[in-house]
Amino acid sequence: MENTRNVTLIFLILTFFSSSAISGTINISSVVDNIQGNISRDIRIVGGNTASGNQFPHAAALFLFLTTGESFCGGSIIHANYIITAAHCLDDLIRIDVQAGTLNIFQGTPQYRATVMQRDVRQHPQYDKETLRNDIGLIYAMQPIRFSSGLQPIALPARHLVSSSFIGQIPFVIGWGRFSDSRHVLSDALQYVRLPIVNDQSCTSVYNQLFPFFNSGTNICASGSNGRSTCNGDSGGSMSITLSGRNTLIGIVSYGSATCEGGYPVVMTRVSAYLDWISNNSVLRL
Ligand SMILES: *[C@@H]1O[C@H](CO)[C@@H](O)[C@H](O)[C@H]1NC(C)=O
Ligand SMILES: *[C@@H]1O[C@H](CO)[C@@H](O)[C@H](O)[C@H]1NC(C)=O
Ligand SMILES: CC(=O)N[C@H]1CO[C@H](CO)[C@@H](O)[C@@H]1O
């Protein structure tokens, strides 16, 4: 019973992330209406703050046009021609309208806008949609991103960090993915929240009861307690910490519970496990 419920939670959050968008408004009401019983409809931001200034100049907003409708994800600029995101954001893709260099995705003036077609994105070849293993993807931005103080790439982890668990770190997780009870819309303003990295057991106990979704080598487990969660960190968005004075991308938002306030942990893709794949599929040499 408990097992079934936990597994259900995982797939619900995926459904939300792939629900249709209408010019910036994600309409998840039809999805919510399908939810039976125990899953809370009370899905809203808790514990987040609005980003300011040039706090997260690597943040990219991905307006996704899919064969199944419209959707939205976050991404991170890692090079003038590359944006990294979650592979599941790129399922059924036709094209992406990318915006970067703005904190506000509807009211703002993005410094960068481009349309990227499906042929210019790459999902990890071992990405598995059912289990969300290897949930990482690259977007090739043919039109180069011109950097400024508000538009900068984020550093990737150094090789020597490949074996680091990062447990105890309290990274920033960002996103525009705001849902409210009454209006199921994205947040106009970029939101951030700090989620402590906890031990793998915290995630395996929730997500691995029926099937081993969480994989220690390629995922990072973040706390969803104390009223903070990834409702504000849309799929594909960054989890970052400061290393050697540079903001460094260590995780990509992958999945979690549909109940943001349920205190369930959140699962990230462990970026340091994919340095070879990123090197092999971009001009970066990591
Ligand atoms: C959202 O979906 C509901 C149910 O399908 C529909 O009634 C409503 O008009 C939709 N809202 C928008 C903004 O499209
Ligand atoms: C990267 O490329 C090398 C050389 O072609 C290959 O041996 C290796 O398996 C690749 N690794 C990944 C993760 O793609
Ligand atoms: C739809 C569903 O799962 N409903 C369950 C909600 O929780 C109560 C109490 O635990 C169960 O009796 C319902 O079956």
TrEMBL record:
Keywords on this record? Disulfide bond, Glycoprotein, Hydrolase, Protease, Secreted, Serine protease, Signal
Q: Name one GO biological process term.
A: proteolysis
| Alphabetical list of CDD domains matching this protein | Tryp_SPc
Cite the PROSITE patterns for this sequence. Answer: TRYPSIN_DOM, TRYPSIN_HIS, TRYPSIN_SER
* UniProt-annotated location(s): Secreted
Under InterPro entries, the record lists: Peptidase_S1_PA (IPR009003), Peptidase_S1_PA_chymotrypsin (IPR043504), Peptidase_S1A (IPR001314), Ser/Thr_Proteases_Immune/Dev (IPR051487), Trypsin_dom (IPR001254), TRYPSIN_HIS (IPR018114), TRYPSIN_SER (IPR033116)
* Span of domain Peptidase S1: 45-283
Q: Name one GO cellular component term.
A: extracellular region
Q: Which residues form the signal peptide?
A: 1-23
Q: Which domain of life is it from?
A: Eukaryota
Q: Name one GO molecular function term.
A: serine-type endopeptidase activity
Cell membrane found in the keyword field: no
Q: Does this UniProt record's set of keywords contain Phosphoprotein?
A: no
What PANTHER family would the database entry show? TRYPTASE-RELATED (PTHR24256)
Q: Which family does it belong to?
A: Belongs to the peptidase S1 family. CLIP subfamily.
Q: Report the protein name in the record.
A: Peptidase S1 domain-containing protein
| Source organism (scientific name) | Chironomus riparius
